[in-house]
Design brief:
heterodimer, A: mainly alpha, 11 helices, 68% helix, extended, B: alpha/beta, Rossmann fold, 2 domains, four-stranded antiparallel sheet, 12 helices, globular, binds adenosine-5'-diphosphate, binds magnesium ion
Chain lengths: 268, 295
């Protein structure tokens, strides 16, 4: 189940979408989400859905992958849709069958819209992470929220923590595996017994892992000091992002969809 | 500041304790050292003899409890000069995994330059230059955790070299590497010394690395036990053994032969000289009649 979750995963590639400025991707994703919540009718969904299909095709990420991303959330989607059916208004679907009088066209419509909205929302937002490496994502996020530092939000520190966390995920994963194997070789049993027994069996993995993580943290702090780390003040950046033509084109398309939805809401 | 000229590191009778309030044992005890510019110094000593502590005193990561340390002529206790000291006294540690900060090689090398506020264009150029020096240019966009140990350590060295330090202090940089990785790192260190004029302080427990230095310092229990050229230091085989240190195999062999009264020269440190001595010995140009023999 955990393995099936593709949200937040990155699929390297070299499509136009991959090459877009990550800051623009974040901004446009927000616009897309706003657009989705403003949609009130079928035409709006046609527009946003069409936009998403175009993005999927350009990014060359396989459709199966996209569908797999929805699968773990199927339950939530069905659940929400189910409850929406009961709270409908308007004409009943079966006016002649008494005990089905609660089933209204409005309810069915709400349920259908809800399903479409959630699917478009999940797929659309996961496309940002599918096509942007976590590093670029945090980098872009840092730059986008950096004005917040004027109201004393520790933007640089948060970004540095994220960067280090991402840098150490593979290292600590490897280490966990090594410790697990070492404990197995000593006869530790992680697979049998009830949940409490199994949780207890994890202690001999967690303790060495935590001890080692602290040792690493200490060494890393020294290494950072040796490289003149001195907080965020006066730092320059190695990576410079700049918007290029493709970013402006993407912005134009997404904004066009956004405006169209407003117009559709007003006129249809 | 007349002492800037030749010695890049100077310590004046330093002592160090991790818990000075509790009167715990001194980890460093009266160290007087002068390390000259563009020299290659190896520091030996068994575990816990205080090598790492001494190294961290060289660039102000730790400050001595007593005495003074001058790095490039600057007192390391001057906190307003600390960045200048650290930029000039680059330091590389044992485990490359715990020194690499970014998830892409070139971004990691840029880390120190970002901290120092180097302008972007110069930064790009210096990153490329550092990659070139350690021979990792083709891995510029790779993820560090996928590299071999030797490659990771070269990335760590490049991250320091990018600061253009005058001195490179390395705390057992080869201890976690396989023989191939060790060779790569040693070759990089020697090239830095000869081509970039960097002063090298190498802490190691490999004797074959120590013999490549101009000067070997042996530490024991927070003090300097022997200090001199490799030839001089490795003559003291008995003394080194008494503090649980090895000597290079060639020196060991000569020492054993001399125990049998075969007068082979003392200062044979590498295989080539050793083979020469042994072949002369076997050809009968030297016999065991207490005759001195010169290469
Ligand atoms: N962070 C620390 N806190 C307290 N004691 C330490 C610390 N680091 C090292 N020591 C102690 O200082 C002594 C010298 O350690 P170290 O300088 O690491 O030696 P070496 O590098 O030669 O193995 C050891 O006895 C060690 O236990
Ligand atoms: Mg040490």
């Amino acid at each position: 189940m955990i393995k099936d979750i593709t949200i937040g995963q990155y699929f390297p590639g070299d499509s136009v979408i991959h090459k877009m400025d990550p800051r623009m991707k974040i901004i446009l994703t927000v616009v897309y989400i706003a657009a989705l919540f403003m949609v009130k009718n079928f035409w709006g969904f046609l527009l946003t859905g069409g936009l998403l299909i175009v993005i999927i095709l350009i990014s060359k990420i396989p459709v199966q992958t996209v569908l797999k991303g929805i699968k773990p959330l199927l339950f939530i989607i069905v659940f929400t849709a189910f409850f929406n059916i009961f709270y409908g208004t308007g004409a009943p679907v079966f006016p002649d069958i008494g005990w089905l009088a609660w089933l209204k066209w409005g309810g069915l419509r709400n349920a259908a819209f809800m399903v479409i909205r959630i699917v478009l929302l999940i797929t659309g937002t996961s496309f940002m992470t599918y096509t942007t490496s976590p590093v670029m994502l945090t980098d872009a996020l840092e730059r986008l929220i950096s004005p917040l530092r004027y109201i004393k939000v520790p933007v640089h520190e948060l970004a540095m923590m994220m960067t280090i966390a991402m840098r150490f995920i593979p290292t600590l994963t490897d280490e966990t595996e090594k410790i697990t194997n070492a404990q197995k070789a000593r006869g530790a049993d992680f697979e049998t017994g009830n949940i409490i027994r199994r949780a207890k069996a994890l202690i001999p993995i967690l303790i060495p892992l935590i001890v080692s993580a602290f040792r690493r943290a200490e060494e890393l702090a020294d290494a950072m000091e040796c490289r003149c780390y001195n907080g965020g003040d006066g730092r320059t950046r190695y990576k410079i992002y700049s918007f290029s033509l493709r970013d402006y084109i993407a912005a134009f398309i997404v904004l066009a969809v956004f405006v169209s939805i407003i117009l559709i809401n007003v006129f249809i | 500041m007349s002492n800037i000229k030749t010695e890049i590191i100077k310590t004046e009778n330093i002592s160090f304790s991790y818990n000075p309030e509790e009167n715990s044992a001194l980890v460093l005890d009266g160290i007087d050292l002068e390390i000259e510019q563009n020299s290659f110094v190896a520091i030996l000593g068994h575990n816990g003899s205080g090598k790492s502590t001494l190294a961290k005193n060289f660039n102000g990561i730790l400050l001595p409890t007593g005495g003074k340390v001058y790095a490039c002529g600057i007192d390391t206790a001057q906190s307003d000069k600390i960045l200048e000291i650290r930029r000039n006294m680059g330091m590389v540690f044992q485990n490359p995994d715990n020194q690499i900060i970014a998830t892409v090689v070139d971004e990691d090398i840029a880390f120190a330059l970002e901290n120092l506020g180097v302008p972007h264009d110069e930064m790009v150029q210096r990153v490329d230059e550092a990659l070139e020096i350690v021979g990792m240019t083709e891995y510029k966009h790779h993820a560090p955790h996928r590299l071999s140990g030797g490659q990771k350590q070269r990335v760590a060295i490049a991250g320091i070299i990018a600061m253009r330090p005058k001195c490179l202090i390395m705390d057992e940089p080869t201890a976690m590497l396989d023989p191939k990785g060790r060779k790569e790192v040693m070759a990089t260190i020697k090239r830095l010394k000869s081509e970039q004029g960097v002063t090298v302080v190498l802490i190691t427990h490999y004797m074959d690395e120590a013999v490549q230095a101009d000067r070997v310092i042996v530490m024991d229990d927070g003090k300097i036990l022997v200090d001199g050229t490799p030839e001089y230091v490795f003559q003291n085989v008995g003394l080194l053994h008494s503090v649980a240190l090895d000597v290079p195999q060639a020196a060991e062999l000569m020492y054993k032969l001399r125990e049998y009264d075969i007068k082979v020269p003392i200062s044979v440190l590498n295989e080539k000289d050793c083979v020469e001595v042994l072949s002369k010995l076997l050809e009968g140009k030297i016999d065991n009649n207490h005759r001195e023999f010169n290469l």
